């Protein structure tokens, strides 16, 4: 029995112990994340390339997400335009709506909304699928049959996610702009050609590059987080639920952090 | 109770697995405390023991899924701990591992489950040869009719059989069965026991069968070892193992056989 347990001087020592244990766990987790990422970059270059699985995952992530992404993008385009109009109308500047929509959607809303929806749909699906494969020993079964499960399950999904999220972002951006156009056309009677002339006039090549780079990073993050959480899940069915849940939460958190950092970098470049 | 079979295929001059002084611990809990084991060619060796005594850990170390803390594991003349990943993969092609819950890939049909290892490790095969091989192993486990079904549509016993078929498709020299009869009804258990013996005869495999089911141990085991407190305490035929005054051995026997 610990006789010091109830002594007043034992409390700070215990707090220090708990803090050290927590810090230990954080550093161990960071090391595991680093090793997982390093393994991806090591394995992605060497055969076998599992093209069939990559195409299957591209279909799952890209094509299957289209209906949800389209609907959300379209609604966001309409709502954003509608909510922005009164502010511009106060200055008699509703003619600037296409430019405002363009800058907002192409620079930020398009990539961000696509990534957040994909984190919810794709990230959780990857986390749950790999998590359940881990707890039902399907990943071990692959390993003992001399198939590299990391290459077959992780590399393919991360690649598919990195390829498909930029494509989905382009699509969402276009659909959002169309939603915005419908609203502008209904209220200001602007034609399609004038609307899109103003849209493209307001953005620069840097905006398109930044948006593309951002969506590639978001795609990689969603795939990697989902795979990491699922591949390393444990504790049975409870672990599968946790893997799916933390895939979404962690990916969303990282997406916001990345958005903030990339925005700072792009603004710095723009200043030059 | 099923009758004990006599296996004429054992070659006692050739060891396919040799384990010496194997130790494995998880955190502070020492599961295996210096295990020594030999598996002879053509032999069915049953490892008996209560749940949580490290039986599955033993075969996971043999197949390279877990690393041993101490000791040597020699499989088909190769020291497992010293193998590079590519050498380990080559060795794994000679080892079939039947998992406790079958571990079928649940997003694939039975055919795709069986095709999966062939596509990767039998690239020289034509499509027709692959199809023939799939049909051959499915016939061997008596489930040819399930070829286009999803794993979720199969019963527990059928899943076990397909899991065994998937391991047989690359014609392994060694079979490792992890609790082959766990969770199955008595009739299906008898069928699985017969299948294990048929596999041994038809494919001339050497097998380690992990179980706590004494009916299974008696029906398939040429030799039985009993894992108690992290070490093999009893070894021999079924009757030899249970001719013991050790309370732990007797309680294990009495718990399984009320008759």
UniProtKB/TrEMBL annotation, chain A:
UniProt entry keywords in alphabetical sequence: Membrane, Transmembrane, Transmembrane helix
Domain of life: Bacteria
TM stretches of this protein: 61-80, 100-119, 158-182, 202-228, 248-266
InterPro entries per the UniProt record, alphabetical: Permease_MalE
Alphabetized PANTHER family for the sequence: ABC TRANSPORTER PERMEASE PROTEIN-RELATED, PROTEIN TRIGALACTOSYLDIACYLGLYCEROL 1, CHLOROPLASTIC
Record protein name field: ABC transporter permease protein
UniProt source species: Pontibacter amylolyticus
TrEMBL record, chain B:
Keyword vocabulary terms for this entry: ATP-binding, Nucleotide-binding, Transport
InterPro entries named in the record: AAA+_ATPase, ABC_transporter-like_ATP-bd, ABC_transporter-like_CS, P-loop_NTPase
Pfam families reported for this sequence: ABC_tran
A GO molecular-function annotation: ATP binding
Source species: Pontibacter amylolyticus
Gene3D superfamilies to which the protein is assigned, alphabetical: P-loop containing nucleotide triphosphate hydrolases
SUPFAM superfamilies noted in UniProt: P-loop containing nucleoside triphosphate hydrolases
Organism taxonomic ancestry: Bacteria, Pseudomonadati, Bacteroidota, Cytophagia, Cytophagales
Domain ABC transporter positions: 17-254
Protein name, as recorded: ABC transporter ATP-binding protein
